[in-house]
Design brief:
The chain has 274 residues and is mainly beta. Helices cover 0% and strands 57% of the residues. It has strands at residues 2-4, 8-14, 30-33, 41-45, 51-55, 61-68, 73-80, 87-93, 97-100, 109-117, 120-127, 130-136, 144-147, 156-163, 166-173, 176-183, 186-191, 196-202, 208-217, 224-234, 237-242, 252-255, 261-264, 268-272.
Length: 274
């Protein structure tokens, strides 16, 4: 058990089998499968452990994220146009097929992450150096696009969550780790120090647990290594914990049925008690 800055306690569990599914009901397992010569396929494991194909992105299409609203399954990705200076953001909705998401101007569109709170769905993506979100209030049947107007340079996002009744976007800017909370058209920005946010989940109380990394240089600044970080809300802002500098970076965060949040690399698990 390791105490981190008095913020939270995480226990490190070694020996995680790479690629093993996290605990939970089989039907909760959503993800991607790759086949030789074909793009990634959205998949779901059914209650008896069989793999069911949900969507098969077509040629020049790439799936990047997937969410279960409880009523529909929604995958998002991008359609590329070889030789042209543009791409299209796309959603695949179970029972509804492929949908081209709305765009407010042409360019290189790139959806990055998706989250849902019942029928309320939010996708965060990039348009060149700008950030856009797509919002749906009907489980993916219709969508609206809007710009995320944030004063920050070199801004990008890796994560979208529904936390404490608000949408939360997380990533980084030139100034370091960045969190944006609110709703389309009404965003508030928090720069939370060195590093970048790579993912996260919400705990039993609906509070965000974010993970990421920072670069640590040697004394002569001739080499560096990546050190893992975790952030949780507290004290009127965000508090940061250090998770050391493991060989393998944290890849994902999951909330278990008992409320524990698990951070996982291909080698290790960090568990936050519920």
């Amino acid at each position: 058990m390791r105490k981190l800055w008095g913020v939270l306690a995480l226990s490190l569990l070694a020996g995680c089998v790479p690629g093993q599914s996290s605990p939970g009901p089989p039907e909760s397992a959503l993800g991607f499968a790759a086949q030789p010569g074909a793009g990634r396929t959205f998949i779901q494991r059914d209650p008896v452990g069989e793999i069911e194909r949900l969507f098969q992105p077509g040629p020049d299409r790439k799936g990047v994220a997937l969410v279960d609203t409880g009523r529909t399954l929604i995958g998002v990705g991008v359609r590329e146009f070889p030789g042209e200076s543009r791409s299209e953001p796309i959603a695949w909705v179970s029972g509804g097929g492929e949908i081209v998401l709305p765009q407010d101007r042409p360019g290189y569109w790139s959806p990055i992450a998706i989250a849902a709170d019942g029928d309320q769905v939010l996708v965060v993506g990039a348009l060149g150096g700008g950030v856009r979100v797509w919002a749906s209030g009907d489980a993916g049947a219709t969508w609206m696009v809007s710009q995320v107007e944030v004063r920050a340079s070199d801004m990008w996002f890796s994560t979208v969550l529904r936390a404490e009744g608000k949408w939360l976007l997380a990533g980084a800017s030139a100034a370091g780790a960045l969190v944006v909370t609110g709703a389309p058209g009404a965003w508030e920005t928090s720069s939370i120090g060195d590093g970048r946010i790579l993912g996260g989940a919400t705990d039993k109380a609906g509070k965000a647990v974010l993970f990421g990394d920072r670069v640590e240089w040697n004394q002569g600044k001739t080499s560096n290594r990546s050190c893992s970080l975790v952030w949780v809300p507290g004290g009127g802002g965000w508090q940061r914990g250090e998770l050391g500098c493991p060989v393998e970076q944290i890849k994902t965060a999951e909330t278990q049925e008992d409320g524990r949040v698990v951070l996982a690399s291909s080698r290790d698990l960090w568990v936050r008690p519920s």
